[in-house]
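Work Package 3 (structural annotation) set out to generate three-dimensional models for the target panel prioritized at the project kickoff. During this period the team completed the workflow that converts sequence records into discrete structure tokens, so that structures can be stored uniformly alongside our sequence database. As a representative example, we reproduce one entry of 310 residues exactly as it appears in the project archive.
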Amino acid sequence: MAFPRQVLITEVGPRDGLQMESRTVPTDEKVALIAGLVQAGVRAIQVASFVHPLKVPQMADAEALIARLPVDDGIQYSALALNYQGVQRALKTAIPWIEISVSASDAHGRVNANLPLERVGDEVDRMMSAALEAGRKVRASIQCTFGCADGDPVPEERILRLADLFLGYDIGQLLLADTTGMGTPLKVRSLLQTLLPRAAGIPVGLHLHDTRGLGLVNAMAGLEMGIAHLDTSLGGLGGCPFVPGAAGNIPTEDTVYLLNTLAITTGIDIAGVACCSHRLSRFLQRRLPGKLYRLTAEPTGASTCPAQGD
């Protein structure tokens, strides 16, 4: 089976991983977390989202956090925007990558971003035009790609139309997000078989949630189809505040371990990421849902988490 030789992991823990947490994580703690992830070899990190602070209080410090990011031209820092106002906020910062994201579910789009399907085309045009004209790179993502938990049907044809909409712009990556964790290996293979030829060389990635325990199974299905871009979250944190019963993303440590067993390189040190997960677990005062980080000795007394061997 022809797996990709290398996979780019985008760590979404500082954004998706923290947005569900009720205990506010201070900016200082987020900066230390991101620094630790960089030390562990992570080369793409989603650090924040530009959403209403009353709806997602954990992201209220997006601008302040981005202003304090460790400077490294080799790191793909990104932030999420769900509407034109979010893009405008992003453009006032130095964030190099903006993820422009819309939902394939009308019901989810209305509650998540006040954006019904009938307005998606116009809003995408406004967002994409603003970001690209400002010289920012864009990750385009489609939420609820594999279904919506509230029963709102999401036909594959709709996903393909939204993908074609994004592919009409100069995007750097197209993400398929399993927001409600309803993906299955057969759904993943079916959609990718049709979509990948249409992408015409644009990297396609998967953003998978483990709500029903199939996160890594779906990642494996994607790898079998040649997918070389995966979103993950340290310790398996994450979930959408507007999806009942939402679970976290596939854990970074667990995913890298799986890739290692397949001789797929990521450049990421599992122990280094696990150190960050232990630190976050202590701060949140609970165990995280991931498995591999628990097998790594918990460090003590470090302000940041050094990579293995430092």
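The radius of gyration is 18 Å.
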